[in-house]
Amino acid sequence: MTTRIEVVGRISGRRRWTVEQKLAILRDAFGPDGSVRAACDRHEVGSGAVYTWRRQAMSGELTGFRSTALPTFSEVEVADPVVRDITPAVPPRCGQIGIELATGVRLTVDAMVDADALARVIAVLSR
Question: What Rg, from alpha-carbon coordinates, does the chain have?
């Protein structure tokens, strides 16, 4: 009986990477036609380290050149609401009915309105 065994040579233990090596691996992993999996296999590094280095490189922590931080919030002042009259400036045309409810709501409907639908709308708006 023949048994085939594949031995994968990996460096065990912790390794130290220089900033230049980390940047080269990042270019290999995320550059044009790059692949994180292929870069990890080629350089014998874990994908977690590659993504950590990418985060550090994007924040400037890896190279020491930090970009200016964008503000995380802005001051906002809320003003009192402006009350505006939203009635149309055009005079009602022939066949239109203007309805003003006790609540201050104004409706303008034409002669073709469905009476049942209008009754339901007025009932809801009168509450």
Answer: 35
